[in-house]
């Protein structure tokens, strides 16, 4: 019954853009063997989290600067 109600495209443009962005972000790692690819993506995530943590540690206010200006 549920399948009959959900005809049409299952995923919208947003899912496609997210996948394309991720694929572009891991572009260099995509041609590596699987274990090296996973390790390269893990290292990219670690670097991104470190940069964000480092940036957040420099905040002097109670809330982040983006919400403070709103």
Query: How confident is the prediction overall: mean pLDDT?
Result: 80
The ordered H/E elements are: HHHH
> Which range does the strand content fall in?
under 5%
Distinct helical segment count: 4
How many beta-strand elements?
A: 0
Largest sheet: none
Principal-axis shape: flat
- Helix percent band: 55-70%
The low-confidence runs, each spanning 5 or more residues with pLDDT under 50, are none
Rg measurement, Å: 19 Å
Distance between termini?
46 Å
Helix/sheet category: mainly alpha
Describe the structure.
By secondary structure, this protein is an all-alpha fold. 64% of the residues lie in helices and 0% in strands. It has helices spanning 2-5, 13-25, 34-57, 65-68. It is flat. The mean pLDDT is 80.
Short note summarizing the structure:
With 70 residues, this protein is mostly helical. It is 64% helix and 0% strand.
Keywords:
70 residues; mainly alpha
Question: Can you lay out the helices and strands and say which pair or pack?
Answer:
Elements: H1 2-5, H2 13-25, H3 34-57, H4 65-68
């Amino acid at each position: 019954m549920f399948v009959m109600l959900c005809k049409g495209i299952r995923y919208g443009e947003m899912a496609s853009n997210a996948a394309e962005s991720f694929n572009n972000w891991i572009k260099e790692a995509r041609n590596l063997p699987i274990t090296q690819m996973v390790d390269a993506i893990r290292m990219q995530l670690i670097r991104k989290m470190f940069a964000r943590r480092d940036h957040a540690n420099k905040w002097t206010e109670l809330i982040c600067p983006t919400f403070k200006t709103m």
